[in-house]
Amino acid sequence: MPAKVLVSEKGEFLDPDGNQIQLRGVNLDPSVKYPSTPHCKTHDPLTPSFYDDADSVCFINHPLKLEEVEGHISKLKSLGYNTIRYPFTWEALEHEGPEKYDFAFMDYTIKVLKKINDLGGMYVYLDPHQDVWSRFTGGSGAPLWTFYCAGFQPRHFSDTEATILQNTYINPNTGKEREPYPKMLWPTNYYRLAAQTMFTLFFGGKKYAPKCVINGQNIQDYLQDRFIGSVMTFYQRIQETAPDLFNDHCILGLETMNEPNIGYFTDPNLSELPKDRKLKRGTMPTAFQSFQLGEGLPSTVETYDITVFGPRKTGTATIDPQGISAWLSKDMRDEIDQLYHWERGSEWEAGVCVWRLHGVWDRKKLKESELLISDYFAHDPSTGAKVDLRYFINTFFVDHFKKFRKAFRGLDTVSFLFLQPPTLQEPPRLKGTDLIDDKTIYACHFYDGMSLMFKSWNRIYNVDTLGIMREKYANPVLSVVFGENMIRKCFRKQLAQMKEEGRDSLGTNIPVFFTEIGMPFDMDNKKAYRSGDFSSQIGALDALGYALEGSNLSFSLWCYCSDNSHEWGDNWNNEDFSIWSKDNVSEIKISNPAPNSDSDSASDVVSSFSTIPHGHVDSSNDEDLHNDYDGLRALDAILRPYPVKIFGEFENAEFDLSRQEYRLTINAKPDPKSDSSRGGTLIFLPKLHFPMGQTIIKTTSGKFVYDPNQQLLKWSHDSGQQKISLRREIESSKRLDDSDGCVLM
User: Fold this and answer.
1) Domain residues of the chain, as ranges?
2) Which of 240, 269, 345, 479 lies 20 to 30 A from 121 at CA?
3) Known Pfam families for this protein (predicted)?
4) SS3 (DSSP) at 157
5) Measured distance CA(388)–CA(392) in Å, rounded
6) What is the pLDDT of residues 597-632, one digit of tens each?
7) pLDDT in tens, 538-550
């Protein structure tokens, strides 16, 4: 059973004895983004059933079948991981209709969580996951009925480019791509009519769409209440049917909505593409052009591609929906409203873009239209204040967080609430307010822009992604860093800055947790799958590991996908981030083979470490735990030493993969239970990197006990600043004498 997690006054995670601990693990797993029945992956051809069956889908067995749980958890434990971010979607909970909950899916999920808990030693926190609002807009999250609620006709999204689905790139006869689906095209849906409108209504419908009233509520409140209600219904069912998950400290808590988006807010001129928009790829309609396309009007839009220094205009393209509208006709809307028991306000006219309904634009003739209020979303209509990114986060986003938090704290006052603002943006300034308590965690995400967009690991140069996002550079050229060593340091600096931003805005006592961070595996057009050479992936993930461990940051890698394949990756928009793949099972290629079973015997271990002064190997543990790495990819980089428990405070750490060396510096505290000043720090020391008989330990003070089965080194040390260095001796045949074993520095 895992120990209860506490938080120090400095925002570090602690165990009940006051020792600093680190939480590290994975997102398990992205298969929750699409149903299990029917199995609607994003590379399946688009058919009428995609919409017809939306209310009767089933998510049971996503992310894992019950009989598969133990095997995958075993692999995570072999990596020394202790934490799982567990995504689920609003659609999985409430796909049939408003307040019609899928309790069968909830109960299946509870069985999975119970099985994880029974296996012992893993923490879980729950993630209401979404990407670009819904899988019906090329992402995941919200159920289909939310679009009907807003007056949309989702079947016409592709015709109007209100969204672009990977499914439309697939030939229904062959199941293969008609043409390659562009890398990272799916996030551009955030800037298309459907998703951008849904987020604007969700966060700001009361101020910007007051005519959109449904069942006596503005659509903002209606959508937020349904989302929060479904999440809390799920959470409460876990509490009521599986209280041991909380009593055993398995469930850490709940995260707010994954990667919330700003909608049309901060768009200063609806007739232009915002100059600070970092992602432009493919066709890029302005907001006004997307309004026109949504009502079936043709428009000539700019096209873009991605370069190292940002988006580059490549030309124009004419999109003609030929009169097809993305909005429900009156007859269709009446039928939908009857199905879901909706009654709309008298001012909500059917078949009309909600932004035309509110006077943002108008159609003078059949094919002519005019933008009337170009800065409609750039000012708060109730105060006149300029709506920029900081204003959105500190008002509209905070208003939603306040409602979410109130509902959660009404159910649970002791578990953690993970606060997640928009991606790569500073959190809201809530320091010292009653919206922040000692059970709040700042949840942030980090992805390297270049590696993500180009799906490659460039060792020669990279850019400061966070610096660009913070508008630190007058010219993007100034953000370039050269050389792999400087790139790694740039990553470390960016993560450290995000940690500092969290503490400045939320409080020094608020922990910072990277709930998503990762690297794509399908680099260089999947070259590694043909050659078996994962050096690019290892280099990229090692750079992230270096950055995280430098600030003792807890994290959940994106991701571990139990259905990953080389052909389709994580089965979602050609993403391929999984550290495990079924296509790599029994075909692992690693640079440093793990010791064979003979070298793990108690006698060999004692012989290897018996030369260490003041230390010995604990051979009393007869349990022989099997480290299961089968199917794991870039193992050298994701299997890393780290301080499981620090008797004191963290100061610095670094794992040098190329040199096979790990260094840790701590400020150790005196042990009040002992006459001496020696305390105990636990270090996860994987045998892959530090095999018995080939490891030299140097330290300022200490005795050592190593458990080869758990791969844990217990270091008993003096108080004050203490350092430990562990280095693999490359010449494996060399016998260590007393002077090589342990050196007091």
Assistant:
1) 18-422, 427-552, 597-744
2) 240
3) Cellulase, Glyco_hydro_5_C
4) helix
5) 6
6) 333 333 233 223 333 433 333 434 434 457 899 999
7) 999 999 999 999 9
